[in-house]
Amino acid sequence: MSRRGKAAKACLAAAALTAAGVVAPAAAHAEIHDAQLTSAFDRLSHDRVATFTLKAKSSDGIVAVEGAVRNPADAAPYAALSFTLVDGTDKDGTWQATLQTDVEHHPGANVVQATVRSADGSTLRPAAAFVDCYLTSVTDVEYAPKTIDTEHPDVTYQGRVMVQKYRDEPLEPAEGATVKAGNGSARTGADGGFAFTATDPSMSVAVARQGALCGTTESTPLTVVKQATETTAQLVSVRPTRDGADITVHGRVMRRGSAGLVPVSGLSLTVDYQQDASGAAAAPAVSGDRWPTTGADGTFDASFSVTRSGRLVIETPGTFFLTGGSVDLGTVDLSRTARISGLTYATRPLAYRGSLEVTGTLVGDLGPIAGAPVFLEFSTDRKTWTRATYSTGTTAAGGFDLFTSDERTERDGYWRVRYPGDALYKPLVTTPTFIDVRYATSIAGFNASPEPVKKGKSITVKGQLFRYMDKKLPGPNAPVSIYFQAKGSSKWTQMAVVKTASNGWFSKTFKASQDGTWMASYNGSANYLASDKPTDYVDVQ
């Protein structure tokens, strides 16, 4: 007997004793609880009796425990069990039942279904299982050669299948057992012996559970010299459609054989097309032939449809005899061109430290692009651009509304909108727009007096001009226009232009002639915005 056979025989006794248990599910009533059914079975004992133990609790008391035994291969139970209370009470106890097993008629997995009844009529049905079979082992295993490759794959196996029925009896041949290794198989003879050749071998000899025999395996390690594969592929065509593109790839897989490159046939490859614009590993969203198979000459063709740009990789899987690999065909660019319509910058010119509002609509060739990020950027020289604070937005139904009032609105400069693009649309930036920044102004304390005034008397119009830089300051030496609108008229007439004093105040006296409204306005300059236009009505009597 080989060393491996002796080791297998030494393990038989340790593997012979089995136990299984299933915790019962929740009861229809809460009167039966903590129920657990277990089984104990010694396959090597002469009596071959299986023992089933139920532990359960019930506040009303358990009045009966029965069981049924079935083999999954049979349609109906083949034995009934009657459980007896062996420990504790009917409210917290242990019940047992035994079964004389019959390995010849009911081999393999057997299931025991118990029915537990309490005094209030509630029931619970826990289950347990045991496996009835004779322990088997594969002994005297020999196989050759122990080093193989794809050009020399055949391995011949031989050995014996032995069975042990009882602990105190020796191993005996298992006649008629099926033995497999890879794609080779044989049935054992009267002495339990077998011999066969596998053209696609494996690393073990296996006996599946069959009849009254338990299943078993015996290791047969092989040294496999793998041959390297060379995969070539090229993008044959990309046919754009409105919804994406149809892509066709042609390639070939060869192996480095002892006499040079040899085609690899019947090998299934994978088309890996990552459509995630961020480059993260996302599941390929591809429809079509993503698993082409090589023909007799090693060539393959794959045609599939995609909706976005992505990275195309052909994956060659490793096999028992061949190494794997991949061919990176790079990025397939299906990006579409987007545009921004209705782009508006308000207000122009912009007040110093004022709020710049930019609106527009992001549009692609399939219509408005919703849910896309857009950014507002600033530059003083059209070369170096920075992103403005609070200027990031997301398009809603394609439209966007961006605001910014950071330090960039303190100086003249160029503004533009950036869309970073995605796997469907290319990035874009709008043509830079120059925004002139000026200091805001206002007129305070405006008054035309006296009110009322007699006709022919004097009216004094005055006010104070302010400018807003880093703080509110008087506006000196600035021209302020004074207008008059007669009662009942819609026309304003310029009456005078006066210069403000160093404290921003201005004043002008006129002769009252008719009822009407007086107004003052600073019209702005290259550095200052126009002021507001306060008014004051005067009644002339």
List the SSEs and their pairings.
Elements: H1 3-10, H2 12-16, E1 17-23, E2 32-42, E3 49-58, E4 62-70, E5 79-82, E6 84-89, E7 92-100, E8 108-118, E9 123-124, E10 127-132, E11 135-144, E12 147-148, E13 155-164, E14 172-173, E15 178-181, E16 184-187, E17 193-198, E18 204-207, E19 216-219, E20 223-224, E21 229-241, E22 244-257, E23 260-263, E24 270-274, E25 287-288, E26 299-306, E27 310-316, E28 325-332, E29 339-346, E30 350-351, E31 356-364, E32 367-368, E33 373-379, E34 386-387, E35 393-394, E36 399-404, E37 413-419, E38 428-429, E39 433-435, E40 437-438, E41 440-449, E42 458-468, E43 472-474, E44 479-486, E45 493-499, E46 505-511, E47 516-521, E48 535-538
Parallel strand pairs: 12-20, 30-40
Antiparallel strand pairs: 1-2, 2-3, 3-7, 4-5, 4-8, 6-7, 8-9, 8-10, 11-13, 13-14, 13-17, 15-16, 18-19, 21-22, 22-23, 22-26, 24-27, 25-26, 27-28, 29-31, 31-32, 31-36, 33-34, 33-35, 33-37, 37-38, 37-39, 41-42, 42-43, 42-46, 44-45, 44-47, 47-48
Core attributes:
2% helix, 541 residues, disordered N terminus, 5-stranded antiparallel beta sheet, mainly beta, 6-stranded antiparallel beta sheet, Immunoglobulin-like, elongated, 5 domains
Brief digest:
This protein has 2 helices and 48 strands. The chain is an all-beta fold and 541 residues long.
